[in-house]
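call fold(seq) -> tokens
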Amino acid sequence: MAENNNIIEMQNVGIRYDQGPEVLSDIKLSLKKGSFHFLTGKSGAGKTSLLSMMYLAQKPSRGSMSVFGKNINFTNRDNLASLRRRIGVVFQDFRLLDHLSAFDNVALPLRVCGMDEREIRKRVTELLNWVELDAHMQDTPDTLSGGEKQRIAIARAVINRPELLLADEPTGNVDNFIATKLMKLFVELNKLGTTVVIATHSEKLINDFSYPCLHLQNRSLHIIRPNGYSMLREQNNV
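ret:
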């Protein structure tokens, strides 16, 4: 599949852990460059498993999966690491480095890429101002609230303008005002060309921002048109 058309391609993908039953079965997905999707489903439906395959932490148990045009079934560790650098991830448990300040946590992806320190300071300062953490730049994560940690994790994920952004409940620890502001950040990043997938249980978020949903149910993936999620919820008690 041509890289300029699809960021992720899955054909008949299944995933299981150890010898247990499949968590996801026969997943078929073509995630086009520049698209924006919500990822929905009940707790335990497999959202985290699907995201873990998307950010290359887990390979499918069966089926074929390509990321940026590369078949990951046959990709070695070094090449997987190179692909991961093109992906930004917001984890539900933040995964911040406790010994680093908020500024240094956000700056880390840029320093890994070897960016000039003056440009790093400019970009990180602007972004931390945007997420209203300019007063906490030198604070370490252990001194911050859950919502503040969430915003640092989001800033770190988007600072290097990734080609693919995956976010697991990115607005779950913030109030509605900050949630809307963060969503606008994701939307602006998407306008610049980043493909975005956001896992969420927030029906308000889904209805306020009219993007299609990748909905997981009964180990299968269904694509729901914008504004169709409320109807599905009523029918199936999602």
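The first helix runs from residue 47 to 54.
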